[in-house]
Amino acid sequence: MAKSATQVLATPAQALEWGSQVIIVISASLFVALCARFTALLALSPIPVTLQNFGVLLVGMVLGRKRGFAALALYLAEGAMGIPVFNPLGKGGIAQILGPTGGYLIAYPFVAYLAGWIMERGEKTFLRGLTAGFLAEILLFAGGLSWLYTYTHSLRLAMQYGLYWFVLAEVLKIASAAGIVAGWRRFSVRL
Fold first, then answer.
1. Which of 9, 94, 141, 142 lies at a C-alpha separation of 20 to 30 Å from 109?
2. What residues make up the domain containing 184?
3. How does pLDDT run across 6-47, given as a tens digit for each residue?
């Protein structure tokens, strides 16, 4: 049977915990929006290079599967409502979700979930972060390239526009996110 809000938030401590979780999820969605501001347009691709993917990986790895998914679902909802959270070179709103980058955007909550799920399965080491990032990026590019394929009707063009130009940047993003998570673990253990 469903519980009412008064039953779930019966004590001030429960209400405070719930409120802090909401603030964390909202902050994470805003962090990804900030990462989207760092964008470079490529001459031969309609897909820009952004730090969004780094933000998605980091949010998933740090917050875990549930809060990571929630933060990125909120991010998509914010963008769909017209709030300028997506990269500034795109059309914004629903048009950006339905445009060439839509497959990547729609995959973001699932990418964060996968990265978070892997990180929750053991100690947050650099190697686990690399594994989580690599597998999450495979999911991201599966979504993005599938969308581009339906958009261009050509596997060659989808790969050209959405994969080849990005491999090096994604390797750096994965390593950076894994390093931050592993470093944060070592730092937080000392506290």
1. 9
2. 17-37+47-190
3. 555 567 777 788 889 999 999 999 999 999 999 998 888 888
Q: % helix / strand / coil in the chain, to the nearest 5?
A: 75, 0, 25
Which is it for the CA torsion 182, 185, 188, 190, positive or negative? negative
Closest CA to 144 of 165, 127, 117: 165
> What's the CA gap between 82 and 114, in Å, rounded?
27
Counting Cβ atoms within 10 Å, is residue 20 exposed (0-12), middle (13-18) or buried (19+)? exposed
Residue 111 tokens read as 């990418």
**Tokens (6 digits) for 61:** 């790895």
Q: What is the CATH number of the domain that holds 173?
A: 1.10.1760.20
Establish if 4 belongs to a structural domain. Answer: no
Q: What global pTM score does this model have?
A: 0.89
* Residue 41 contacts residue 48 (beta carbons within 8 Å): yes
Tokens of 68: 């990571």
153 is written with which tokens?
């009707």
- Structural domain tally of the chain? 1
Within-domain flag for 78: yes
Q: What is the CA radius of gyration of the chain?
A: 18
> Is residue 7 domain-resident?
no
